[in-house]
TrEMBL record:
TM stretches of this protein: 6-27, 39-62, 68-85, 105-127, 133-154, 166-183
Function: Probably functions as a manganese efflux pump.
UniProt keyword annotations, A-Z: Cell membrane, Ion transport, Manganese, Membrane, Transmembrane, Transmembrane helix, Transport
One Gene Ontology cellular component annotation held by this UniProt entry: plasma membrane
Protein species of origin: Herbaspirillum robiniae
Record-given protein name: Putative manganese efflux pump MntP
Length: 188
């Protein structure tokens, strides 16, 4: 897997967190840059850890599935990308409380974990391709930190419309990265 593909993968993995950050930013009363950066770092650290967990689990299975590894990676990315597109095209959920609210650390961490489950599955897929998992995890964490920080700051202005579009774009990128992995293995 080449570096441009890793960059695309990192930003694709950050889009669901970006969408959640827009919602969090919209719920906060005039978030400051330092608040947004703290939230971004929380999401980024969690998003960087989950592909490592997935990679370790996938590495254990590598010896049994080496002939099919590219198909497994492609299928995982296709399913995750499709899920992101479906969720991005889904009906908007209405907020229960229209007034601004303070974001608790526990709720932010739970949201970060929920948006990083797909990164764990991607980590499993990355165990089957030639990639530096530390580099991939670091890039995913950095991209998520950046995107969440931006998402919180623009959330109050843009609302959830951009968040849904970001998820659709992220899903398309994941499917594209999966197709590149499959093409590289079948062409070799």
């Amino acid at each position: 897997m080449n570096f441009p593909s890793l960059i695309l993968l990192a930003f694709a993995m950050s889009t669901d967190a970006f969408a959640a950050a827009i919602g969090k930013g919209a719920a906060m009363q005039k978030p400051r840059l330092l608040q947004a950066l703290r939230i971004g770092l929380l999401f980024g650290v969690i998003e960087a850890i989950t592909p490592l967990i997935g990679w370790f689990a996938g590495s254990v299975a590598t010896q049994w599935v080496s002939e099919w590894d590219h198909w497994i990676a492609f299928t995982l990315l296709l399913v995750l990308g499709g899920r992101m597109i479906r969720e991005g095209m889904g009906k908007e959920e209405e907020e229960a409380s229209p007034e601004p609210q303070k974001q608790s650390l526990l709720m932010l961490a739970l949201t970060a974990v929920a948006t990083s489950i797909d990164a764990m599955a991607v980590g499993v897929g990355l165990a089957f391709v030639d990639v530096s998992i530390l580099e991939a995890s670091l890039l995913i964490g950095l991209a998520t930190t950046l995107m969440v920080t931006i998402g919180v700051m623009v959330g109050r202005m843009l609302g959830s419309v951009v968040g849904k579009r970001a998820e659709i774009i992220g899903g398309v990128v994941l499917i594209g990265v999966g197709a590149v992995i499959l093409y590289e293995h079948l062409g070799a």
